[in-house]
Amino acid sequence: MSVGRLARLAALVAAVSLAALASGSGLVEGAPLMELNHENFTEYLHQNPYVLVSFYAPWCGHCKKLEPKLEKVAARTDTFKVVKFDADNFYNKKISRDKYDVKSFPRVIAFAEGSHFKYQGPREEGAILGFLKKLGQDTVLELPNEFALTKFPPAEEKKINVHTSFVYLGGMSEEYKSLLRVARDRKDTTWFGRLTHPSRALLDRLGVKELPAIVAKFDGEHYRETEVLEVAENSRADDEDYDPDASVREFVDSHFTPPFHVITPPAFGALRARNLPVLMVVTDKSRQDKVVKSFSKAVADLIPQYRDRVSFAVINGEEYHSWLYYEFGVDMTSEASPALRYILYQSLEDGTGRMKQFNPETKNKVSIKEEEARRMLELGLSEEVPWTFTGEMAWARNARAKVKAFATKVYKRITNLYAVYVKGANVEAKEL
């Protein structure tokens, strides 16, 4: 072999090596993904603590479009192995369908430290890398000082975060271990931190009396709240049945999603996960900011009373016109449509929903008073206004609901007539 050919070969080897080093994962961008099957899937996960799996079907067009993007992700991630798994294969379905409930394709699931997380974001390289970066970080981030707390969660996450962040204050305890266990299952959606030595001034500002304590903090653009779980021994001295795992999990679960949001797809998904009715104010783009400010102020004193029964939201009827029209029959483009409208909506387990609609009594197009919000809540949560079902087979459910409402009305009427005539006659007979 000539000296020139040897030089060119050496240069080629060097270029490939540099590309692999630059990628951080040792993979060349565009390299085919490793494919797992039912025989090696479990063992591979045991050997690799961070794995991103694309559950695909060979005939799936969306899967084919996603694969080149995942190949680029595989080359750029330092932490995760990226593989694929034929979920439509008969022998593989015991894992994909039976164990991980994969019924549509592609389904991307990240496995990290013994937990697994479904990826539900955009099928884009940058979004997937951000998802993996979040999962690859420590479950609970150590905050070096109080200034770090002001930057927690990261600024870019505050803009899009729809969930509450949690900070543990104090040294090691059973409650901290409990928080670690809870955080492992939630680390894909929110942030957990720890500040070991907070100052007395910070504790007073947060409303913490003693250490240790857990603070739930949401600092959104339109809604803010801070709640404290006191876990110091003095605060639970009289509770003989105290269970740190149950106490911490209940606190995180009950405060995980704030009860007030301006509707976006992630925010609506978060509110729906609360499994409570959502009182939505429907407005238009030009009035949205004023309506949000007015409504958040109107429900400020109602949220503590109703947060375990209902959520609150404002939705831009122009931006989400199609969804409002097909789901609720609300046409915000109609000239006859009111500038404000209330919808009480609840998602059901079968994927359908039910709702109640109200028009405000006031003709004011932006201002909402607490009295009106309370009236809408009480009316919506009462049986005075029947639910209307939405989604698949809604017509059948609504027909049954109407028949039931009519039967109830007839029954009450007959009962009243019986009370008036029959009981009245008996009273008269006794008097005679």
UniProtKB/TrEMBL annotation:
Q: Which SUPFAM superfamilies match?
A: Thioredoxin-like
Q: Where in the cell is it found?
A: Endoplasmic reticulum lumen
**Entries under Pfam families matching the protein:** Thioredoxin, Thioredoxin_6
Q: Where is each Thioredoxin domain found? A: 7-137
Q: What GO biological process terms are annotated to this protein in UniProt?
A: protein folding; response to endoplasmic reticulum stress
Give the InterPro entries listed for this entry: Thioredoxin-like_sf, Thioredoxin_CS, Thioredoxin_domain
Question: Which key words tag this protein in UniProt?
Answer: Endoplasmic reticulum, Isomerase, Redox-active center, Signal
Its signal peptide is 1-30
Where it mainly occurs, coarsely classed, is endoplasmic reticulum
Which cellular component terms (GO) are annotated to the entry? endoplasmic reticulum lumen
Q: What molecular functions are annotated in GO for this chain?
A: protein disulfide isomerase activity
Write down the superkingdom of origin: Eukaryota
The protein's name: protein disulfide-isomerase
What is the species of this protein? Chloropicon primus
